[in-house]
Amino acid sequence: MPPESGGARVVLPERYRVEHVIGRGGTAVVYAAHDDLLNRPVAIKVFTAPTDSARVLREQQHEAQTLAGLSHHALVTLFDAGVDDSDPDQPHIYLVMERVDGPDLGQALRSGALTPMQVTYLGLDLCDALQYVHERGWLHRDIKPANVLLSTRQRDRRLRGKLSDFGIATVLGAAADDGEFTVGTAAYLSPEQVEGGVLVGASDVYSLGLVLIQAATGRVSYPGTVIESAFARLTRDPEIPDSLPARLASVLAGMTRRSPGDRIPLEQARAEFERALAEQIAAGSPPVTPVEPAPRVRETIAAAPADREFSRITGIAARLLRAPAAFVVLGDPNEEAAAFVPEAHREDLAALALRALQVDRGDGWTVDDVHRDPRTAGAVRAAPVRSMAVQPILDGAGERVGVLAVLDALPREFDVLDGATLADLANLVGHEVDLRRAVRRALFAREL
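That's the non-specific serine/threonine protein kinase sequence above. Prediction below.
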């Protein structure tokens, strides 16, 4: 199926096999496709407007360059970009991106609102993504359900959200455009976007709050025409149903206060979502008999059971770093530790994991040859492992609670981007550790 843009056929490199249309917007069409060279599914965004003007070219290049500089588990990843100049008079830019295996939030909400727990998980992911974006000096400016992609909608599994579409992103501190009503989507604009004020991170926080309220209720907070919707938020706060768990309702209210200075920052919002999730999990768990914990120098989770979350994170690490395997090991090297390793060559990999845990470093490190390096020599007997990259896992207090590592059967040099990707995933494991601790504390407190 050849992609089209504005009625004209767009010519892509032969490696990309287009399958079907995923979605259409005002400026682009997104296709499901397959990258035959790397044997992976991709999404290809083809801009409908030809780059026959300097302004349009700048806008399209802007999105490609913004995405190229961002790498985070809750952001859609850019793989490739190019220009189809088969028609010199009407060249078209296209972006090749990660294809997410689920609908966007807008599509999902046609089947009804999300559960409070799903909304809370979504809030965790999107707060992480926005904090990463803001730390790099960018505002998204167009957070809406269509720009939030979901990896699963099954009620018994952890919902994952990814933020997409940076076509109108701008630098922090920029003033709202004169045409902000048409640049963003009216239903999700912040009050300062409506009024043409200076835009800071709190503007994205407000828009995210409105999106999460809609996810929880299935309803747009400010319906109506563009003008009605835009100006309604200047005179009233969004309605948050009393049926939501109290902490979840509180954080959504804090994100959607009308004054930017009164809104809670992303870091606080994320912490509140984490507490809300712990309370919801505890409320749905069977009663347990509280046991007074023995005093310890520092908290560990040495006896943590195996879990799909760790398997999922190690799988992502292996795919992103193009490595055959990865593992997580948690605990204290001087006490009992739990190693989450692949079943194949489990004994060797568990021994290697414990060796990695014993290396007392606060930053990432690599091993060119596990058989020769003194930190790992003798751990591996039969497993086809030669090199590895290791990243410490830190909890919310900055204590090292384990390591995340990827393994390769061949000698290789892991680059700076590999290290940054592994560090992001190690942070994700650290958040999971903190969440499990919070759940245990909530369960314990409930029984006192």
